[in-house]
Amino acid sequence: MAIELKEYATSYSPQLVMQVLNRAFSKAGFDVVARVLQLYYLAKSPELPLWAKASVFAALGYFVVSPDAMPDIVPVLGFTDDLLVITSTLAGLSSQITPEIQRKVLEKLQGWFGDEAAEKLEKIQQAADQEKT
Question: Which residue among 12, 35, 74, 106 is least crowded, i.e. fewest CB within 10 A of its CB?
Fold first, then answer.
């Protein structure tokens, strides 16, 4: 089943993303939350080109829309399709993630997941770097 992300771009709003994350961060798991936060702060970046913002808005719109390919009410598994969409979008935009964005992501993650967030985020970044090579 092909996912038409353009349809989801209109569903994106910064407030809605944070509402969904606040409500579902424990069910979604660290990986999903960390990547959504990267996209969230990337979307707010004034340096991000318009074409890239469209991709980010579409991915975040997909995340906040409830009836997706796998219902999010299923713990962890329900976010598998979201993780696929988010990771694919981030793969093409990883060079746009600035140290400032990473700092904001880490601060938010530490607030939700505690001090081990830094180590977990580092592992995600290392895995992403290995996929590039």
Answer: 74
